[in-house]
């Protein structure tokens, strides 16, 4: 059986934030010292073949050619157009590499909104079981915050404003290697990076410029429209309006952060934890409706008034096999399913 993920003990929000800062600094130093970066001028044609940089295409490691550079430039250009309007949480999920989404679903169990700083919320997420890091740091910059604070609004309008920000344009960053070496360049060209830009083309890790974000970002943006994050976004709006004492509320307390992580890890509710694309969701709901209709008509057909109690039980057990997955997926409530079984058993 897989080991149950546990939040790492003994880390306070202040320690987590200090860790994020140290990692950011180390990443920046490493980047400044890097010698094998393919910079924008080179992609634009100023490449000196004497540098003999490598790329991996179709699984093969080889030297970069002039044709590669032309293709890289064309890819970067079309990427810039694709994200001209910024990016939303929904787009991140829909455009993500399916394998990253799969890994976010199975390996990354929570995201916690640790600190609010201006228009940015710093989330910590769990790391995958095999990772060297205990956690990762994801930053979400809510581009629309200044617009949301410019217009006066009553307290009761805050939830709607928070939802608007959560579903609107955002910029993101993560400290993991996948983000640094595979996606940060795409985010920079697409203008949806929230921290330092990356202008070096990912010639080895992602020369096809495929996908948009790592699994930690996916887990985080999936949380944005749920109460845990929406409450923090409301708080961010209040802070920006100067209606709260900044210092007292910007950062979570350790107990709050631990509770948020534990609550997410304990969820058995498939619908709330599963990161699915708009298309997957539509398909799931349509399939569930079809199964539910078939199960209901089957139950009505086979359980005729004269059926013995023993036969009824067998038929109900058979129906349960179809209906229980629907309960787990959140398309049918526990109560509705139980009522259906009770009625069918009774006759
Ligand atoms: Zn990441």
General description of the model:
Helices cover 55% and strands 11% of the residues. The strands form two sheets. A five-stranded antiparallel beta sheet has the order 3-7-6-5-4, with helices on both faces. Helix 2 (40-46) crosses helix 3 (66-82), helix 5 crosses helix 9 and helix 14 (278-302) runs antiparallel to helix 15 (309-328). The longest helix is centred in the last third of the chain and has 25 residues, at 278-302. The two termini are 41 Å apart. The protein has two domains: 13-38 and 79-268, no CATH class; 278-346, no CATH class. By secondary structure, it is α+β, with helices and mostly antiparallel strands. The radius of gyration is 25 Å and the shape is globular. Strand 5 (120-126) and strand 6 (135-142) form a beta hairpin.
